[in-house]
Design a protein that fits this description.
- Helix 4 (86-98) packs antiparallel against helix 13 (348-383) and helix 14 packs across helix 15 (451-471).
- This protein has helices at residues 3-23, 37-41, 53-64, 86-98, 109-125, 140-155, 159-163, 181-189, 210-222, 245-255, 292-295, 310-314, 348-383, 410-424, 451-471; strands at 133-137, 171-176, 197-200, 226-233, 258-262, 287-290, 303-307, 387-394, 397-402, 430-434, 437-443.
- Strands 1-7-6-5-4-2-3 form a seven-stranded mixed beta sheet, sandwiched between helices. Strands 8-9-11-10 form a four-stranded antiparallel beta sheet.
- It folds into three domains: 3-74, dopa decarboxylase, N-terminal domain, CATH 1.20.1340; 100-345, Aspartate Aminotransferase, domain 2, CATH 3.40.640; 360-471, Aspartate Aminotransferase, domain 1 (Alpha-Beta Complex), CATH 3.90.1150.
- The chain is an alpha/beta fold.
- Helix content is 43%, strand content 13%.
- The chain has 15 helices and eleven strands.
- The structure holds pyridoxal-5'-phosphate.
- Residues 80, 139-141, 180, 182, 233, 235-237, 262, 264-265, 291, 303 line the site of pyridoxal-5'-phosphate.
- Pyridoxal-5'-phosphate binds next to helix 6.
- It holds the Pfam family Pyridoxal_deC.
- Keywords: Decarboxylase, Lyase, Pyridoxal phosphate.
- The modification N6-(pyridoxal phosphate)lysine is found at residue 294.
Length: 472
């Protein structure tokens, strides 16, 4: 492809994306395809000869679009948001166009130094301690795995790097039963192992039960185990619960346990001074993850891991073969030592574009509005005699269920309600369990979301619920 063709299709694709953004509300939110549909439509081998861009773009519309779920749709209330934005998309184009691999300072000094400065901006804007330093990873799962690896090595005095550390007593790790599955996965992958992961129950407030945590650590110590890693979750995935960071921090300090904070979703709300209650006690944390790719308009993927003691952290990842030595080694930041991968996309560019193009004030107002819309809808649902608010609102998340008078199997009714809503295509909601009851999660956080969208979604929920009651 020469630059003339590139320019032509570049313009065409930007027009295509802009049209998609303008028309997104006309798409059914969820894909309407069945398993295997695309596989059946695609050739089984790559073409030997070049195809035209026209043919490729036609197949984009014909084959790919019907199989997509529209995460940027204003009425996407499923999971957690993963919002993109035009500045982030433009920065992604530049990132791809430059094709820079920022594995270390020398391979693109600007990529390294922009990442450092943008993460200082973000840290300060979130009200995090000034001794936190950040690094961009692909996902929170990777960030938490890196924290677990560093925790393991610090606890083993870096013996694991030498001989695996198997001769040392088993290490143990802790998180609440509401912690994201990536926490357990990190514990498995870092070698601590499933048998040594303690999933601590939560108390009435949805946070990790501190008495059980203390007793579990004590029991582990009595068995000769070494407590190494603990995760406090701020804004748990299913129901948005918050662990008591301050109290967990005190316990971790007493036992020299690496405390990692998972604020993958809720971390963006720290832009709002009135939400900083959740990080009381953050001084005791060794690391924290938050994902700008969830709620901060920075196209997936962009997860930020903040660490307090960079030396203790990077020691777990540093390896220096001859071919990676540079004149500046040891005097500059080489982000290859801050994680698993050597090669690194230039992700800081999109965060820089987003922070500059919107400014902190507008981002704050967006999150504040999401929290306000969630509170208003939760109150409306709570006031309805046929619906029950089960959880929240916690930031911009709440959970509810339909329970009209005379309903006999409320769980089945809500299963039917959720699947009918999601087949309908007007809005997209996902599920949760609250005290064993089937609940419907409503997570607010889309770009361009208005009170009218919320009202339209609520009307659709009530209509579908009413139809179900009449036909059941
Ligand atoms: C609290 C929490 N932690 C971690 C994750 C995993 O995030 P990622 O997809 O970036 O690995 C999620 C995903 O929703 C989450 O809600």
């Amino acid at each position: 492809m020469d630059s003339e063709e590139f320019r032509r299709y570049g313009h065409e694709i930007v027009d295509w994306i802009a049209r998609y953004m303008d028309e997104i509300e006309h798409y059914p939110i969820r894909a309407r395809t069945s398993p295997g549909d695309l596989l059946k439509a695609l050739p089984t081998a790559a073409p030997e000869t070049p195809e035209s861009m026209d043919a490729i773009l036609a197949d984009m519309d014909r084959l790919i679009m019907p199989g997509l779920t529209h995460w940027q749709h204003p009425m996407f209330f499923a999971y957690f948001p993963s919002i993109s934005s035009p500045p982030a998309v433009l920065a992604e184009m530049l990132t791809a166009g430059l094709g820079v691999n920022g594995m270390m300072w020398e391979t693109s000094p600007a990529a390294t130094e922009l990442e450092t400065r943008v993460l200082e901006w973000l840290r300060d804007a979130l009200g995090l301690p000034s001794d936190f330093e950040g690094v961009i990873q692909d996902t929170a799962s990777t960030s938490t795995l890196c924290a677990a690896l560093a925790a393991r090595e610090r606890t083993l005095n870096y013996r694991g790097l030498e001989d695996g550390g198997a001769a040392i007593a088993p290490l143990t790790a802790y998180g609440s039963i509401e912690a994201h599955s990536s926490v357990e996965k990190a514990v498995l992958l870092c070698g601590i192992g499933r048998a040594h992961y303690r999933a601590i129950p939560t108390g009435a407030d949805g946070g990790l039960d501190l008495a059980v945590l203390k007793a579990t650590i004590k029991a582990d110590l009595e068995l000769g185990h070494i407590p190494a890693f603990c995760v406090a979750t701020l804004g748990a995935t299913a129901l948005g619960g918050f662990d008591d960071l301050k109290a967990i921090g005190a316990i971790c300090r007493d036992h020299n346990i690496w405390l990692h904070v998972d604020a993958a979703w809720a971390g963006s709300a720290l832009l709002l001074p009135e939400q900083r209650w959740m990080i009381a006690g953050i001084e005791a944390a060794d690391s924290m993850v938050m994902n700008p790719h969830k709620w901060l308009r920075t196209t997936v993927d962009c997860s930020v891991l903040f660490v307090r003691d960079v030396g203790a952290y990077t020691r777990a990842f540093t390896i220096l073969p001859e071919y990676l030595k540079t004149a500046e080694t040891g005097q500059v930041t080489d982000y290859r030592d801050w994680g698993i991968a050597l090669g690194r996309r230039f992700r800081s560019l999109k965060l820089w574009f987003v922070l500059r193009r919107y400014g902190l004030h507008e981002l704050r107002e967006m999150i504040r509005e999401h929290i306000r819309l969630a509170a208003a809808m939760a109150a409306t649902i709570d006031a309805h005699p046929d619906f029950e608010l089960l959880i929240g609102p916690r930031l911009a998340l709440f959970a509810f269920r339909y329970c009209p008078a005379g309903a006999t199997d409320t769980d089945a009714l809500n299963e039917a309600l959720l699947s009918t809503i999601n087949r309908d295509g007007t809005l997209y909601l996902t599920r949760a369990k609250v005290d064993g009851k089937m609940a419907i999660r409503w997570s607010v956080g889309q770009n361009n979301l208005t009170a009218q969208h919320m009202d339209k979604a609520w009307t659709r929920v009530q209509d579908i619920a009413g139809d179900l009651s009449r036909t059941s």
